[in-house]
Amino acid sequence: MEVSTVRLRALSGAPLKDPKVRAMVVATAEAIAERTGVTLAGVHAEDHAVTVTLPLDKLACLGFLAELRRLTNAWYAGKHHGLSLWGDEPDVWDAG
Fold first, then answer.
1. Would you call 94 helix, strand, or coil by DSSP?
2. Using CA atoms, how far apart are residues 62 and 52, in angstroms rounded to an integer?
3. Which helix (H) or strand (E) holds 60?
4. Phi, psi at residue 68, to the nearest 5°?
5. Which of 18, 39, 69, 82 is surrounded by the fewest CB atoms within 10 Å?
6. Each residue's pLDDT tens digit, 80-89
7. Distance CA 31, CA 52 (A)
8. HEC profile for 67-91?
9. Distance (Å, whole) CA 71 – CA 63
């Protein structure tokens, strides 16, 4: 069985320095794993990132991180008036 470790990092700052935010991100990772029937082999949070280890291939782990980012960003935006937890990439598609 393949095991992969992937990391979700904030584009700037240290949003996980706040213990409540860090706890929510870790709890959300655990909840996603439980909901999807995946064993979370490891989760490690730092001030600017969260790293997860899962018994999945890299592509499946990226899907896990996408869901973690989506859920935690929505929670954070609700608590902090639309701010992004992980940051937003600049819009590179200029329609003009």
1. coil
2. 10
3. helix 58-79
4. -60, -45
5. 82
6. 998 899 998 7
7. 13
8. HHHHHHHHHHHHHCCCCCCCCCCCC
9. 12
